[in-house]
Amino acid sequence: EVQLVESGGGLVQPGGSLRLSCAASGFTFSNYDMHWVRQATGKGLEWVSLIGSAGDTYYANSVKGRFTISRENAKNSLYLQMNNLRAGDTAVYYCARVRYFGSGSYYFDYWGQGTLVTVSS
Amino acid sequence: NFMLTQPHSVSESPGKTVTISCTGSSGSIASNYVQWYQQRPGSAPTTVIFEDNQRPSGVPDRFSGSIDRSSNSASLTISGLKTEDEADYYCQSFDSTNVVFGGGTKLTVL
After folding, report:
1. Could you tell me what percentage of chain A is helix, strand and coil, using 3-state DSSP and rounding each to the nearest 5?
2. Would the pLDDT of A55 be above 80?
3. B31: nearest CA partner in chain A
């Protein structure tokens, strides 16, 4: 059974840092691209970042230069290092696995339960 | 930047059919595939449609997706509405390597 379990969320002051983790199990983690998607309370889904199975990384403009996505295949783990946090980064952060279908397109087939990050003084 | 626009909310009665639209801001929505996700309160999203009109295993055929090039929009249609379909629905596509979500539509089944 595929499982994604996020951890590391919490309360942090503006300008502070936090590192989120996502522990994966039930599949060969190294073979899959992985994403972070966030959702502010009562708001919609917002894509944050992607790391490919080869280690290539991509970021939403809203977090570029402040967030760093990484993975440790030996530990079946995905990470999101968040620096210089702002109030607008307050959200539930989900890690998600993708499933490809034809010509490079994909959908999110498994999601974690999310971890809440609150940026407030 | 490419954006997807959805109605904020829709409502319909059990047993009826409802359609949720997702309109692309520029270019052709048909240039990239559209996916649809269902999110019930307190839960992570789940996929109901991928590749414009394909259902993952386990999703009932009451859920269907389509693309209308003339209006540059995608649609999710749910027929035979059940109270359990009450949820938020999000469309999703791509802008180069970035993932784009619509703002979400709250479906009320009353």
Report:
1. 5, 55, 35
2. yes
3. A105
